[in-house]
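<backbone_tokenisation>
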Amino acid sequence: MKVMFVETVEGSGSMGDVKDVKPGYARNYLLPKGLAVPATPHAVARAEELRKQELERQQVLDEHYHELVNRLTEKPIIIGVRVGEQGRLYGSVNNADIAKNAGEILGEDLDRRRILLGEAIRQVGIYTVQLRLSPKVQPHITVVVVDEESPDGVEAAAQLLLNPPENIDPVITADDQAFQENSEDNSENSVQSIDTETESSGASESESESESESESESEQDI
């Protein structure tokens, strides 16, 4: 079914577009909500005027979106969550969580559908996330997920991830140390065992040589 969009519908069409859509989609959604009208000759004649209006509207929106982008990219979005073992989260961080935190920075609500997050975040770390504010404004922002119970606070934990200190010696736990000592003991025991076996082998060879010499002397006496 051919319709003309009188409103912009994301993923379907912009104001003034004339397109073929599925009849059910048109009858059940576009037409009842006033988002499109049947593409009659009279409606099509208005298409150019509507496209011009949409272009002007979009330019104003894009200017506003660029301002939002500048504010969102000034610093990363930091999200504190409960964290379990090995940095895994209790639950996850999804596009609604990111939209909420971004909205707090912007001072206005941000539709979670603007956050293009492929799958929920389940691990502490730094993530690059794309926003789709408009067809022409699709920036990437930095999201840092940290433990909300970090001893030095969420901000400090985020900075540690963003700017890790250099030349840090690895932390050796008691278990690691015990494992290392056991490994050293096992190595020493292995060396001692090899030495003992070598000595035993040498003694056996000496005894064999002595027996051979005695036999030779006995044969000469005979």
Remarks:
- Residues 2-62 form a domain with the Ribosomal Protein L9; domain 1 fold (CATH 3.40.5.10).
